[in-house]
Amino acid sequence: MSILVTRPHPDNETTAEKLRARGLAVLLAPVLKFEPVAFHDESEAPYGAILVTSANAIRAVAPQLQDLGLLELPLFAVGEHTAAAARDAGFAEVIVAGGDAASLRDKVLQSARDKVLKKKSTLLYLAGADLSRDLGGELGAEGFSVVTQTTYRMAPVKHLPREVCEGFAAHGVEAVLHYSRRSARAFLDAARDEGVEISALAIPQCCLSETVASVLRDAGASQVLVAATPDENALFTTLERALRTRLA
What we know:
Low-confidence stretches: none
Structural class: alpha/beta
Strand content: 15-25%
Order of helices and strands: EHEEEHHEHEHEHEHEHHEHEH
Oligomer: single chain
Helix content: 40-55%
Mean pLDDT: 93
Strand order of the largest sheet: 3-8-7-4-5-6
Largest sheet: 6 strands, mixed
């Protein structure tokens, strides 16, 4: 029996290593494909800080960071995974939020209240093409000036790997891990196109957040579990709970 990881490459490989270290077999089905978008900074105002809600945003602009002079700026990261990518890219000052865009917004507001960040400074938001919430707009309503730059897109993968389809057909997949609302939708579309949707939805769906979980519930999944906090360790705890329930 295997655990299916749907998150994109290369993060799926890191997740797979952690799961194998726990003694679990893993199947990979990256249902979104990372595509960088050319970065053209036309803002004339100096930036006071950078906002990032995904490690992919940093990967997309990594070759340009030094030339753009961005590494000297403080960076607000949505969670520890994104923060690690920022440190690896060369950012020295990384402020870590609680794992979702709402906590990132609150972290920025608190930094302004603490006088760590000037409220009049312009913030650069390195974002994906598809946003689950308008972080720039929310901070703009609080008096910040936010420049949103799209640095990458995640394109849906229309087909599941053959071994994954065979795994569903043979009831060899024990649970599915979902990391984003978009990837959950892409997974459902691919499973439907492959004719394995019923089998795919009959097993536990372990989701990083309630927002992700709602996609699976709306599709008819009956065993949807949500991590207590939006981070991978909490998601693994949710997976362990799902596996114990199946064995009981």
